């Protein structure tokens, strides 16, 4: 703990910068409705095709007669320019970023909720339970995450999800959360399982067993607290992965339902119009790189602080 | 072939089987009860056309029967796409060389570059080349290859027309054209991995540098370069081989999808993406199965290679 604090308090410019960037991005995305109503005065889906905006006292078409949208104006309206429908790109970026963050965070929570019990059961009971769970995780793990994501995503957007009490409509934001959350389960459960395996042999776990504690109590009150640092580090790493995967899924049309912007769908749209208005591609690309860079710096710092013995290897940390 | 390799291949087969069943269940159970369903060209479907489709695809049979029917069609080459291809199997084998070229080139570039940069870091450990390369590597692996592909293609290929707009030239026809068409996709796919591998190999080299045999080699009076290249490197690349195996087997269902779509390469990734777009069921299920087979075969091959390089590793994992 002392070491953790020392590491966190050390002067770390890159880490502090990354933290500031992420805090700013999250707050900005949360404030998207406020920005759109108070500053930009438009919504993410409002078209301004035939309107004009005043730049340096000169009225300029939002979308020129030949169909070229306005570039960054650096003022309240159309701060980062407009798209070919005359929609404010900054507003769309904020809403898109919000969607991406919500999906990524929701997916990580789902991953933790599935992976931790699996890891506890497999690592604690070993034997049959372990071999069944491990085989299933291995099967999932040996299949490419993106392909699995687009397969499940496309199928779910075509049909929705309706098994027993769980009902998800096909256009809901829950679809990408479900897809990304499921895909990353083995990446979290496998390292946690081996952690549980080594924990159950330690003295405190033996003492708990000798004291006659129930299995459930040992798993959740004795072992689980020791997993928390690993969970945090792995969760942060899967957050980075989830942001990247969400953008790839939306780019391929298997993520967020079209009219709603997300970072991936903004990139896909920008790619179509790059000849006339490069800002439509560059803005979401830069935003994504900035967020991923900051998140992975933070994930690295978190790993250095919480996992000084290197239990979680770099191989678990590679973005896939 | 040892028993362990056969066992790995057995599990590989099961993975492919599971993949095909999952893909089949996901897509064959999409309800299609829209009474006003459309045929191609805006033609309304009628009960008659529906009956015809049920007859042709055997949709009234039980799911296991349909599964067997679909899979035999895919493997004997008789299953066709709704539009665009006559045989899913031959379309897959036409597209495979494209993706193989893409993935192999990206693997060579990222592993070669990563190992080289890691050697630079360790050679100058703690000094400015180490710091510069490490920082650049972190930056590189934080730029998703989706972004890199989009920006490189948009500016270098579309806007300034320096690189080809789209398409693929077979290696056997024109090696220079092959490399020219694939150069940007290779860079876009490889750069993030190169950054990650620089860190991984650097860490691994630093761990190895504390080993006894390295101290012995230095004590023998060997030059730092010789120790680094012939004593440390070989041992340091064994642990990362698992990661390379995973990354480049997964690449067939990973970056191949969007890199091929963006650069207009007619590989299996682009084929899969367009089939998913059109909800073209037979190629979706066929490609999921074939890609699963490629993925597991590549990962088995790399496991065997790792075992060759380091006899302590048992190829069964």
Describe this structure in words.
The complex is a heterodimer of chains A (320) and B (317). With 320 residues, chain A is mainly alpha-helical. In chain A, 66% of the residues lie in helices and 4% in strands. Chain A folds into two domains: 47-86, no CATH class; 90-317, Orthogonal Bundle (MetI-like fold), CATH 1.10.3720. Chain A is built from twelve helices and four strands; from the N terminus they run αααββαααββαααααα. In chain A, strand 3 and strand 4 form a beta hairpin. The mean pLDDT of chain A is 83. With 317 residues, chain B is mostly helical. Chain B folds into two domains: 1-83 and 278-317, no CATH class; 96-270, MetI-like fold (Orthogonal Bundle). The longest helix of chain B has 36 residues, at 88-123. The model of chain B has no long low-confidence stretch (mean pLDDT 85). Classes of the chains: A mainly alpha (320), B mainly alpha (317).
Q: What can be said about this structure in brief?
A:
The complex is a heterodimer of chains A (320) and B (317). Chain A contains 12 helices and 4 strands; from the N terminus they run H-H-H-E-E-H-H-H-E-E-H-H-H-H-H-H.
Could you give the topology of this structure?
The complex is a heterodimer of chains A (320) and B (317).
Chain A: H1 2-9, H2 13-30, H3 32-40, E1 52-55, E2 58-61, H4 89-125, H5 127-141, H6 145-159, E3 161-163, E4 166-168, H7 174-183, H8 185-200, H9 203-210, H10 215-251, H11 263-272, H12 279-306
Antiparallel strand pairs in A: 1-2, 3-4
Chain B: H1 3-28, H2 47-57, H3 63-75, H4 88-123, H5 128-141, H6 145-159, H7 175-208, H8 212-219, H9 224-236, H10 238-250, H11 255-263, H12 268-277, H13 281-309
